[in-house]
Amino acid sequence: MEEIRALPRPRPIKKRARTANPDAQRRLLEAAREVINQQGMSGLRVEDVARCAGLSVGTFYIYFEGKDDLFAKLVVEYTGRLRARVQAAYASRDDLSARFAHGLVAYLDFVEENEKSFLHFRDAGGIETNAGRLSTWAMNQHAEDLKPLLIEGIAAGIFRDEDPDLLAQSLLGLFQHVAGWWIEHREHCSREELQRFALELTGRGLLR
User: What's the pLDDT score for residue 40?
Assistant: First the structure.
């Protein structure tokens, strides 16, 4: 997979540390998660991340161009973990409709387990990277996982015959928006009600 890096912003030149700590990047990523969960993306400062990781600012710049690049690495890691869960759900031996439903359940499970990260990543996805806008890159990764299932369903005459790219983007956009809305408005419905609604709504639009 192509390495995703945020496009650098102009910043003061900092002297970089000469010796890299083998686990420094991991410590910085863990520290960044902690700082973001406490203060949000808008409150993220390189100095705070370095301090939380017990490292110098110079060491930070060995691994990251700046806080946007750090955030991009977190999104890439988060996206990879979510994809692994959803891919496993799609790969079950059940029929196509059940596999689609398993994928939605896996998506909602992961979002619920990582709700703070999900909201931060959703809201700060406008960072430009070497692969384009970060939020668009992440959505495209998930669409590539869903598209083979849709193509199989269209070929079998189970799913409606539409452009699979458009279907995948539309379904994932709906899931992301509704999941984020639910996290912020849990008083409106339970997780079970949300899941049932999403499956019934997408089923009416997806099945022939």
Answer: 74
